[in-house]
Design goal:
Blueprint (H helix, E strand, L loop, with lengths): L16 E6 L13 H18 L4 H7 L1 E12 L8 E11 L4 E10 L5 E13 L10 H6 L7
Antiparallel strand pairs: 1-3, 2-5, 3-4, 4-5
Length: 151
């Protein structure tokens, strides 16, 4: 008996940053599906991992004196996921105004059927790490946080 091939993910952009996630029983709510807040936690983790892959971990924010904080999250839950589901969480920079703000988008796909189960975005604002006040992005950010190429 042969194993059925899983469909290739149909990402919204070319070459997003991707991490695999397995839904565990600890991720479920009283309805037996993944809790909405858990998705946001996963998106935070994939966003940080992507930032680190671009050369900006928290230590780098401290070094530059500038960090990014979330101003707004928007999440569209498109299908439920359950314990045992294998998911692929993707993220990319959608827009960077070159000043204070950037927008990061997300897409989560269920690996077994290729279905997009979530789309979302976060509006990030740059702040001075000492004062917490808005601060212009340093040149290093502009070089690293480049918007993704559309499909």
């Amino acid at each position: 008996m042969t194993e059925q091939a899983k469909p290739a993910p149909a990402w919204d952009v070319a070459n997003p940053y991707v991490q695999a996630i397995t839904v565990g029983p600890e991720h479920l709510d009283a309805f037996g599906h993944t809790n909405n807040v858990v998705y946001l936690q996963w998106l935070e983790k994939v966003a940080w991992a992507h930032s680190v892959s671009l050369g900006f971990g928290f230590e780098d924010y401290e070094r530059t004196g500038v960090g990014c904080v979330a101003r707004r999250h928007e999440l569209d839950y498109l299908a439920a996921t359950f314990a045992g589901d294998e998911l692929l969480a993707a993220t990319w920079i959608h827009e960077n105004d070159g000043k204070l703000s950037m927008w990061r988008r997300y897409q989560i796909i269920r690996a077994s059927d290729g279905k997009t189960v979530l789309r979302g975005q976060t509006h990030w604002v740059c702040i001075d790490m000492k004062t917490g006040r808005p601060r212009r992005q340093p040149e290093e950010f502009l070089k690293a946080y480049v918007p993704a190429t559309p499909r």
